[in-house]
Amino acid sequence: MSNDNANNAIHDAVIVGSGPAGYTAAIYLGRAGYQPLVIAGALTPGGQLVNTTEVENFPGFPDGILGPDLMDAMQKQAEKFGAELVYDDVVSVDFSGDVKTLTLDGGDVIQARAVVVTTGSSYRKLGVPGEEEFSGRGVSYCATCDGFFFRGKPIVVVGGGDSAFEEALFLTRFGSSVTLIHRRDEFRASKIMVDRARENEKITLLTNSVVDRVNGDDSGATSLTVRNVVSGETSEVPANGVFVAIGHTPSTGFLGDAIALDADGYITVDGASTRTSVPGVFAAGDVVDRTYRQAISAAGMGCRAALDAQSYLNALGE
């Protein structure tokens, strides 16, 4: 995109983020004739689905579809209807006027009458010594991406929710053993998931325990230092693969205090709509949704955001 285009034109609609929510919003706004600009991100256009393998539950694909292929198809569909993509990140915004201003990492300043935020969320980290050092060399946040690297090796999953149990069960295909470590003695996960794990002879559940450190050498992670929160005792748990499944952090840092966020940083919207606290700014997908977090629910919300934005733009036009 040329700087002239970026710095001078006032766009009707700008979508910040990509993924199922952003691309669906772009398809709808494109078909409505608004030529939306999608600021898709510098590193991860397509969002979390780009890091998944087989997506089996997206309607219309009875044989499943690879996550990157699904996002590629959505992107092409958005572009077919006139969406323009920019591979950069928004670093700050000013939503105070009728024309919203977005400043990109590369220095471009974008102006828009309506903005749809679909920046998703990122994996929450443990924040312990060794986690960063061994990230990509044993420490992972995506079982489906990295499980096969640890075939025949000891694996640990950290977390206590459904996603942690799903990952643990999935990883039994690869690991010599799978230990699930959780800080409490009760799990947030659904009973059926916990029961399945208990029945699986490859899985050991280690409760009332936290990871203090990831240990390793030049070959990568080798073990975890684990502390029992009741007794205070520490022990070494062998682990070549460490999968962190402790939740997500919404990607809303760039917004500052421009719109209302909840205590955890998720964007708050008005009822079942996608309207944020600022007129002309809408939000969809995992940046709003802490409950369902599915590709199909994000896409559905992206559709709603586009229709809400369209109705706002129509009212402006009148």
From TrEMBL:
Keywords: Disulfide bond, FAD, Flavoprotein, NADP, Oxidoreductase, Redox-active center. It catalyses: [thioredoxin]-dithiol + NADP(+) = [thioredoxin]-disulfide + NADPH + H(+). Pfam families: Pyr_redox_2 (PF07992). Its EC number is 1.8.1.9. PROSITE patterns: PYRIDINE_REDOX_2. The keyword Magnesium does not apply. The keyword Disulfide bond applies. Residues 12-302 form the FAD/NAD(P)-binding domain. One of its GO terms (molecular function) is thioredoxin-disulfide reductase (NADPH) activity. It comes from the Bacteria. InterPro entries: FAD/NAD-bd_sf, FAD/NAD-binding_dom, Ferredoxin-NADP_redctase_2, Pyr_nucl-diS_OxRdtase_2_AS, Thioredox_Rdtase. Belongs to the class-II pyridine nucleotide-disulfide oxidoreductase family. This is Thioredoxin reductase. It comes from Bifidobacterium amazonense. The gene is trxB.
